[in-house]
Design brief:
This protein is an alpha/beta fold. It is built from 16 helices and 17 strands. The protein has an eight-stranded mixed sheet, covered by helices on one side. The chain starts with a strand and ends with a strand.
Length: about 450
Amino acid sequence: MRNILIIGAGRSASSLIQYLLNKSDEQNLHVTIADLSKELAEQKTINHPNATPICLDIFNETQRKEAIQKSDIVISMLPAHLHIEVARDCIVFKKHMVTASYVSDQMQALNDQVKANNLVFMNEIGLDPGIDHMSAMKIIDEIKDKGGKLILFESFCGGLVAPESDSNLWNYKFTWAPRNVVLAGQGGAAKFIQEGKYKYIPYHKLFRRTEFLEVEGYGKFEGYANRDSLKYRSVYGLDDVLTLYRGTIRRVGYSKAWNMFVQLGMTDDTYIIDDSETISYRDFINLFLPYSPTDSVEIKTRFALGIEQDDIMWDKLLELDLFNATKKVGLKNATPAQILEKILNDSWTLQPHDKDMIVMYHKFGYELEGKQFQIDSKMVCIGDDQTYTAMAKTVGLPVAMATLQILNGNIKTSGVQLPIREEVYLPILKELEEFGVVFHETAAPYIGYNPDRLSGN
């Protein structure tokens, strides 16, 4: 039996584990599922004879090393900052490693040792990063192979609520990491290239500079810029591209509404609110409004945001129960961002019958034989239920497939790497189609930079 160690049995591991267990007899696999909560690990084994749940404290060096030493390959589904100790143990015991996380500087620093031991450390092999890399590189390589020159690359991805579960005015529910949603865009200006010119969008302007997108069968969406669109310019071989923009997808109207929180200061995570545990939701929003001996919190809010009582933006705020004077925050020493997350969780948590949806959209502009062309590539994936969500599928399945490809010797290039080579992305993208992760490519007239596609300019 070939032993696969999965460290971390959280939500993203459901489809990953199911895939490997379904393949275990055919591929001669035994899957060890390790988590700090043995109960959670046991739930994910589904009583499968080829699975063993274990309790593992990642900070217990003896436990960690013992589990890694027994394996043939290690999948780390831990938070990104915890991968490094696992990675070092994998080098010591000469084990391949797979993660869905961004390559940290610490991980990259291990590259020479990984290569010296002829090991594969595959990173960024989830959804975004992951499927975005593979689907983009497939078309970029195809364009280059036929002699084309890339002049535009735009890429958008978003985790959303499925249409049949879209039941609030925001057209949004938390499908993953609520904290990341609240803090999105912070930490520096968004940076990208438009028609050969560097462009920057500061945080306080970010949610009013969105691009409209249309996905057949699913309607209209909008995308706001990621913090650093240029991170993968060299990785993708696009150093000379004139337009490079990466963004996050939401339903139209979300960004304009979210901007209300940004302008009020409710997304700030840099300071603590005094007596945060005892204040009400109404007290919380009032913290950011001017004092008035006569005006209500509602009137002050509308005045501060410049919205009328019959504006849909106002209805969106009311829907969140922000002006409730009896609901308490109940969080000690909380930042504004943490309190906002708590309030949003009341309204945006997926219900048991809800399904989530992943939308990915790439645009490629290129020149070939003196003419300009555009390819649009779109993917929509709907979750099955609250266990096998679209997010769990699109994060976990590529991880599982890459793990099997490495074990079977089909991925041969050693080192700390991303899934940007044909030997990685071609078989995985093809197999993902069997699970409903399908990209539909269409030729479109090349339009380049078009201000009419942008809102809030």
